[in-house]
## 1
Amino acid sequence: MKHKNITLAHGSGGKLTHELVRKLFLPCFNNTALSFLGDSAILNINGTKLAFTTDSYVVKPLFFPGGDIGRLAVSGTINDLAVVGAEPMFLSAGFIIEEGFDMALLEKIVKSMKETISFTGVDIVTGDTKVVERGGADGLYINTCGIGIVNDGINLSTSSIETGDKIIISGTIGDHGMAVLSERESLGFTPSIKSDCAPLSGMIKKILASGAHIKFMRDPTRGGLATTLNEIVNTQKYGIVIEEQAIPVNDGVRALCEILGYDPLYIANEGKVVIVVSAHDAVKVCNILKEDSLSKDAAIIGEVIPEPAGKVCLKTVIGGTRIIDMLVGDQLPRIC
Amino acid sequence: MKHKNITLAHGSGGKLTHELVRKLFLPCFNNTALSFLGDSAILNINGTKLAFTTDSYVVKPLFFPGGDIGRLAVSGTINDLAVVGAEPMFLSAGFIIEEGFDMALLEKIVKSMKETISFTGVDIVTGDTKVVERGGADGLYINTCGIGIVNDGINLSTSSIETGDKIIISGTIGDHGMAVLSERESLGFTPSIKSDCAPLSGMIKKILASGAHIKFMRDPTRGGLATTLNEIVNTQKYGIVIEEQAIPVNDGVRALCEILGYDPLYIANEGKVVIVVSAHDAVKVCNILKEDSLSKDAAIIGEVIPEPAGKVCLKTVIGGTRIIDMLVGDQLPRIC
């Protein structure tokens, strides 16, 4: 390992996170189902295909425009199940709370978790509470794990991706990261920028049921759209090209990114999904998405190309083409 | 809720933890499988009975005689699956790491996790890493979730417990809590006191396979043996009586408890199980346990009685009887 100590970038979801996973976790916990880099592990239990995933949430601040750590913790894990084609069923909730934490805030967060799952068919069935002394945590951290069932006939994998397949993003990018940053730094942009944090299982169920040939899905959280697209092409025999002007970005997010020097391509989303779909079905899937309020701004933003393999290219608005890499360093720590 | 702010005792596993669960989590996340107070939720997935559990580990210090946070994090979750009669299969691992944490220590902990699961048949199949700034966590916290299969014919429940059933403890009590305390306070008792932290699934499989009529099991972790026995009798129409002199306690643990004024009955264990078994099979189960190195000091320590219902009584060495309650407050925060 290059670093002798853990840095914030090891938790960024970008290059150093990948290095940690590849050099430490994967060799050590070596097994076929292992999915530190995927969204969920796929397990075979007595003939049933089960998806299993975990995420810890350390977002700061705990409340932000459009959501809170509770809504985030259940949405994120539901989405990690949904993007592998699973129907989310059961969640766990593990709370690590700092001594002195306001009980009324805890109640508000727990109620937000309940409200967020209320229309998803998901139950929180097991939990745990630990309390650490003042200074031992920053208010509250939540871990959620999720279990879902992958129905017969669903088999999403990067290995079925072919040249010509289209790339869809289900809506505007960067909303979550910019909403959290705006709240954290008290920038006063809050009215126009809201986190997109939401459970996407209902919307994903619709497109899976449509019969469209969906090859692969992933939610572009930490590291943003750019990192997710790189994860898709990484070590593959194909690349991806996306068109800058086709990527939906809210005006407020665009403005704040410009002012602060951020690139929306690297900003975290918590209610969006990247879909790789056969060219034939791309418009159909996009139209289904547009009917759902969570994905009304869905757009086809690019396609799978043979060269350069393993790379993501961006055609810029002014006509240039540049290669976009995974997130390096960490622009925005503790975004989820 | 009586308290306006979270106290360390809310994470003790004792009375305030139960209040938090009963007054906040249970009403909010209301569903039949919910097991905040049990060891694992039991779920029916396409006809397969699945056990699902979660625990966060915040033990301080991270290394202690007999184990470390990694060994603890996998053992604890494996044990929560095993005591509901499930065969542990898959674990998740979620790391919350403080910026600056020593990479070599992280590697040591991850390798300890791997070593601990190596003979259990359990795989770590999914994970997550978050990094928080200096001061945002105390080194490292680990959350693990576990999935296990409950085989046909196994149905452990407090509802099958009857008067006359025997209570077995699988070995000496208080070792884990006293080992951690001793290390934390640098008391220098370390040579004689070691944590019992270990995965018990192999040992439990043997007694389940013996055909003995085992009614219920639970691992007496936070809150110790006294709290676990109280959880078993709580709101039931029976009570439990245990004999003080039958309870195995290591000399070192007994001595340290006496010096510091702790009661071993309330000290956490991480490699022990409380078993409620029919009177007819008690000796048989105890003998099977004694053949396993992890339970060589197993003992029948008491029995189920009709009165006083809902209470745990202790017959003391000098012949008296007193009622022992759940843990109140928190004697030893961050023991697991």
Note: The mean pLDDT of chain B is 94.
## 2
Amino acid sequence: MKLPDPESLYARLKEQIEHAFPNRSELGLIGVHSGGAWIAERLHHDLGFTLPCGFLDSALYRDDFSERGMKTAPKPADMPFDVAGRQILLVDDVLYTGRTVRAIVNHLFDYGRPAKIELAVLLDRGGRELPIDAQYVGKHEPLKPNQSFVLTRDEQGAFRLGLEEKQGE
Amino acid sequence: MKLPDPESLYARLKEQIEHAFPNRSELGLIGVHSGGAWIAERLHHDLGFTLPCGFLDSALYRDDFSERGMKTAPKPADMPFDVAGRQILLVDDVLYTGRTVRAIVNHLFDYGRPAKIELAVLLDRGGRELPIDAQYVGKHEPLKPNQSFVLTRDEQGAFRLGLEEKQGE
């Protein structure tokens, strides 16, 4: 399969968010480690949000933690604004089962009860296992269960997209 | 506004579910009290599910419990099948902010980790405050914030739909 160009996806996502939130002075932007955090950081820089960017890691909160375990050490959460009563834009790189999003939303509620949480993702690969959906999507690109997108950054900070295929599944 | 006929919406929803789940022998059907429970009961009867129907009440689990309080006494949960590893179809009457769905999904995980949870609703009235969506929808019918749909049943068990409008909001 020909992989989509992640820089084009990012440009499309940025445009959607710019259009949906003409006033970004009170909007709380939160990136999910690691890919979502990179995207949130770039959105924060490119679109000029007033509040600093927040970061969350889902690793410790997913319902399948006991099966997946820790692939990498969880990164510290950073919530530099009040969540209670605030409109929140959550950013992740790839939307798949929805389990990460459920975990992150539950985690967010530990900080306070937001007025609204919306979700922006670079890629929706389908395969949802929970009734969760994103409001802003760079591209819908269905993958097989044994495949996964891998987002990385080059030395200049530009996004690169790879495809991982597990054998024997 | 002209209200949609809830019996036509039900017929449309039933058809979607019949088509999406040709094999209903292992599917766990769960209705959310009260309206969702009525719809789930009818689906269970009309489509011939093998497992008994489950029921949940969101009142105690919503994140705005302290603001809303108890309008009516919560109905007891009834989960007559194993949730762990199972495909679940959650049924509610109206999808609005998504807060009820989040509460119900979290509550479901107290029983075990389902393989998949999908959501069916008679009406999606828009106004989401969480990144939640339904897979099966009788109709999308946006309402104003001061309006709400009220589903009732007549003596024969047929659905009736009303519109409630709060003044001064």
Note: Chain B is about 25% helix and 25% strand.
## 3
Amino acid sequence: MLNFEISLPTRMVLGRGVQERAGEFLKKFDATKVLLHYGSDRIKRTGLFDQIAASIAREGISYIELGGVQPNPRLALVREGIALCKREGVDFVLAIGGGSVIDSAKAIAHGTAYDGDVWDFFTYKVPVTKTIGIGTVLTLPAAGSECSMSCVITKEEGWLKRGVNTELNRPLFSLLNPELCTTLPREQVAYGAIDMICHIMERYFTNTPDVQVTDRMAEGVIMAAMEAAKTAYADPTDYEAQAQLMWCSTLAHNNILGVGKEQDWSSHQMEHELSALYDVPHGAGLAVLFPAWMRYVYKHDVRRFAQFANRIFGIVIDPFDLEKTALAGIEALEAFLRGLNLPLKLHELGIGEDRLMEMAQKTKKTNLPAEETVGGFVHLSTQDCYNIFKSAL
Amino acid sequence: MLNFEISLPTRMVLGRGVQERAGEFLKKFDATKVLLHYGSDRIKRTGLFDQIAASIAREGISYIELGGVQPNPRLALVREGIALCKREGVDFVLAIGGGSVIDSAKAIAHGTAYDGDVWDFFTYKVPVTKTIGIGTVLTLPAAGSECSMSCVITKEEGWLKRGVNTELNRPLFSLLNPELCTTLPREQVAYGAIDMICHIMERYFTNTPDVQVTDRMAEGVIMAAMEAAKTAYADPTDYEAQAQLMWCSTLAHNNILGVGKEQDWSSHQMEHELSALYDVPHGAGLAVLFPAWMRYVYKHDVRRFAQFANRIFGIVIDPFDLEKTALAGIEALEAFLRGLNLPLKLHELGIGEDRLMEMAQKTKKTNLPAEETVGGFVHLSTQDCYNIFKSAL
């Protein structure tokens, strides 16, 4: 096990009706003027916006609003939000939505507390050293941004999708009401499930020995997430399955399942380039690329892939043929994804081979700050990235 | 799943040499005068005290010291520490030790920030509303106090062992160096292992349905803790096994494995009375009482005990005889405990039947504030507690 540090200060609140407590938590964290940040007008039609606004008004806190966040959240809107917050003296951003809205809110909060251009953080020109308050009302379990150190923004010019990791990305509080997920379209349930499962697998495939505790916990959360995903995909109105998924989403990416180990993340980096260029759902891109990555790298440590197959899917380990066991595990994962009607090949997303090398080259450059390789489990060259994209055609 | 709230703000730092960072973290948390609180002089003979003192001195922070904490930490020393802290203007208590030292430090910190008698907190006369800074350098993985909301103190008059739960019990930081555990006597490794495993099992046996995520995580940590315990018991110098145990200790009791569910805790409450009266090691008492409790209550939900047997010990579930499966799981747990040379019966601790009813009656009274029953999974009467004690003779 590697030396590590972790704290999870975000106040996580999960249960029925918890969005009604937004005002209570904003007051607790000394908010005086709040930006309510969201995506489409759907939250107004469902009444969610009004419930939250009313709970804030009850505490005598004022607010303004900015909607319009798109999947793969855009820098232009972040800049608009920063200008608005500075002009209006906002000291707290409350995200109402999924990972895209939350990431947009994080970037707005950091930019509001900074005199320069917010993109500086995403090019690692300057570190994030201060921010204003950030809270969330989660509506889509997937990205884990409600408790994570991550924030990923897309710059429209050149379609660059870049992330910044900092402790300041952890929200002060997150309100998780599974009831809000029961009206999600089935494909959103599926995209969310594969995203959280990939967040765990990116941490699971490691070269660090002696990580039994995190291995066992990760396996447990993957199994629970898969079961809940099947149930919620079959019937999104199932409150209990949605509750499991919401909690898995948080656990998958707050790094409690990643401490003390080298992690990989090459599939996520490749997918960032894919969705930046083609604007496909992140979950759809991951469903294609993660199994492709697994098939490309499994021989690097066939024992770990055999353990994955055995502990997640109950596949009996053949000690005479670990490779067969490993491949059976990858096939079982693909069968799970197919069961959620997720794509397994790029052509299912309408993507051909014309821009594969461009994405491979951008994947390498994304890996800031200034590391030479992509991936911690297996270091991938540009050619390796190209090969994985190509194998997924 | 029940509605829940959780945050884990304690900065957990695990790795080689981390005690050398005590000064850095004390400075980060604005300590100006620190009480170094510990048990025996062993930490002076090993050089640990001097390493920590030197790191504090490097930051220009002053300190005083108070040793002498005993297992089942005593109220008298807590009161002495509070008087000392008030007299000397101490604003931070750094515990160097295991759960007893940390609990004593927590009580001192709360009492220092309070004008009345510290025992008021433990009789639920007043809630803990403020405290001074608390940090830890952990030397014994067991109680999980390094990240938990718990604090348990024993009042010598009447040998009352009482706990108080509050968010203010979570330390600001905890430094976990597994190297410090490699000189532990083997029986301490065993006592620590059963304590952390029981902390998980007290949460695992629940009547709350739809808690798959926490079930799976709990099973994972129990399995990893058992494997690490066997290794570390056979060879306490095994750094990696001690690292697993240190991390399990924290996870077992910071409530990440207990959210959203009704918990039990009757075995712990009964053991508190046992160790308060007979001053036996907490781990030894738990090794006797937890299996006795299991055998007394398993019929309440034989399916959950069968799941435990299957997932923890790989026992094949007999769908025609779940009871047989359940009992096989309890037997497997007992075999694990025997493998660590832990006692399974009270007579092995030199305890006879003369004071069983006294302990049963005190167990009921312990269950403050003012609840009528002990235990969340199965509500136990005084007679039930007596029966369990008696079955363990």
Note: The domain at 186-391 of chain B is CATH 1.20.1090.10 (Dehydroquinate synthase-like, alpha domain).
## 4
Amino acid sequence: MAQNIFEYELIAEDGDARAGVFHTPHGEIPTPIFAPVGTQATVKSLTSRQLTELDAKLVLANTYHLYLRPGDDLVADMGGLHAFMAWNGPILTDSGGFQVFSLSDTRQIDEDGVTFKSHIDGSTHRFTPELSIRIQENLGADIMMAFDECAEPYDREYNCRSMERTHRWAERSQAAQSRQDQALFGIVQGGVFPDLREESARFIASLDFPGNAIGGLSVGETKPEMHAMIKVVNDVLPQGKPRYLMGVGTPRDLVECIGLGIDIFDCVLPTRLARHNAAMTDNGRMNMMNAQYAQDERPISATCTCYTCQTHSRAYIRHLIQSHEMLSGTLLSIHNIHTLLNLVARIRAAIIAGEYQAFARAYLAQLKA
Amino acid sequence: MAQNIFEYELIAEDGDARAGVFHTPHGEIPTPIFAPVGTQATVKSLTSRQLTELDAKLVLANTYHLYLRPGDDLVADMGGLHAFMAWNGPILTDSGGFQVFSLSDTRQIDEDGVTFKSHIDGSTHRFTPELSIRIQENLGADIMMAFDECAEPYDREYNCRSMERTHRWAERSQAAQSRQDQALFGIVQGGVFPDLREESARFIASLDFPGNAIGGLSVGETKPEMHAMIKVVNDVLPQGKPRYLMGVGTPRDLVECIGLGIDIFDCVLPTRLARHNAAMTDNGRMNMMNAQYAQDERPISATCTCYTCQTHSRAYIRHLIQSHEMLSGTLLSIHNIHTLLNLVARIRAAIIAGEYQAFARAYLAQLKA
């Protein structure tokens, strides 16, 4: 059964922060962990060898995009997503719900599912919980997500109805699952309303998924609201299963939300910032196009052990940007992903050492400086 | 002295084809060899680690581009081109002449040099043989090129005057050289005129450069004309020094021109084709965007040992192209450069085995098929 394959070992707790290991058919995921995003079966600009060299432990791919192009049946024919993208480590696919609501031109939601138009060619498609699961089974990721609606966070009445539908979709997603080598995670919704979040967490927890996610955050609400929602939800979600905060990934968010008991994160930020010439560091972001770096022989970060920092100067990276050379995106993606993977690894070590609070305090002070 | 550092060992001859080793301060270059082009101090889309994994033996960089951006003084301040681009193997820089004549908006040539406008911002600059050498000494490549004019190939009267000026510029380039750890190569010109080519080869050979190049070919003349010029020139150029055919690099050209005694080639073709979705193979080019590859699980080439072919299917590469993912350019650049490096390595082995003719015949037959 899925619960046996997908064991979550809790190794240490430090306040609400947790260190663990989540077992999957493609390897162990040490938690807390950050997952780089490979929307279209590629973490933008990186080869799978470069992902391996980065020691990435979990990669996310997007169901909506892969359903539209190249098509999940084609991916299945090619042996599934692991074979298709030549990434033999753990993969997580989202349900497609978030992209249907954020990317498609028009959409109509009803009890059964969502009808939407493709952002690529305007063609009409329909997702239901059952189809989302069938697509995700075709893709074959280690972790798949229940189909949900990510609602606008401040409309209480709408969030109430949407949450209840998301709960019914969670049950239907669970019922639709046929493969036992994939872990299906449930998703808690409820906008910025503590009572709805608590109710949603109780319901999702009752379905006994091998892991649980918090959706609908980092979508416009304030940080105090986000943190309050995470607290309410994590007080309810079971200790013995991983908790995944969807779509979140600044260094500050990682540090703070791990302190609130989150185990898994994903975000396009490191690769998107890379394509916009920004380097993520423990002291904040650097705009590598800045003229001050033109003759700077130092690496982006003196203490960073990534390939980029071990190999190239700030001056070289700025030159690539000025010269419109795509290698800048590759080098900055390597650096930014390394920065986040290194950060979660250090937080994990701090939790195991019982020093999470001291680490977080020092890190956040440095980040502000 | 440069001649001692830059020894060319002739290992085998098979007809006019030669196998050798050219020694440089950054390592041995087995010849015949193909040099990928890193115009702006980066072989487009590839990290220096990927170049190392490709076992590239020589990389070309462009003096014109690096002079304009980031500036050769800056590169010198950063420790030279090897340190700047983190490529510790042999590098060759051209003289800037070809780009001045092909890229800059307007130019005025006189006995002393060329005044031109930057293709980047329209600013006015002037190259002389002395400045070209100073820039190339700032860049610090293992091999640098005499400043020359690449003239339109069919105007006899102009080629005559231009060639004589190129000869005077070759002497001035030689006189301007101050560093002894760089090999300066002379360049033979003369358009499509056998007598001019012969005269140019005699003159350039008389200057006793550690290596000699043939310029002004593959610029619009026919293949028979190109081959005739190479024959005339190589009959004159010394056996004991490497011969570099500038800017040439289709598989057919490599096979045929090695048979005419060429040792070194460079071309943007493998990376440019990669960015235009084309894979180079022993059987010709494949347009990887073609719908026939949509569900093709095979690698680009069944026998290819490159990272791309060892890792990914045609279907995946087509998906990346369809999805506008820049990784397709990286994967195809790796494959195409490997294809040419593998080709020259096989030709070299055939020459050493005394089987060049059989190899060339079989290869060219396969290429046509």
Note: Chain B touches chain A at residues 40-42, 44-49, 65, 69-70, 74, 77-79, 84-86, 294-295, 297, 307, 311-313, 315-316, 318-320, 322-323, 325-327, 329-331 (CB under 8 Å).
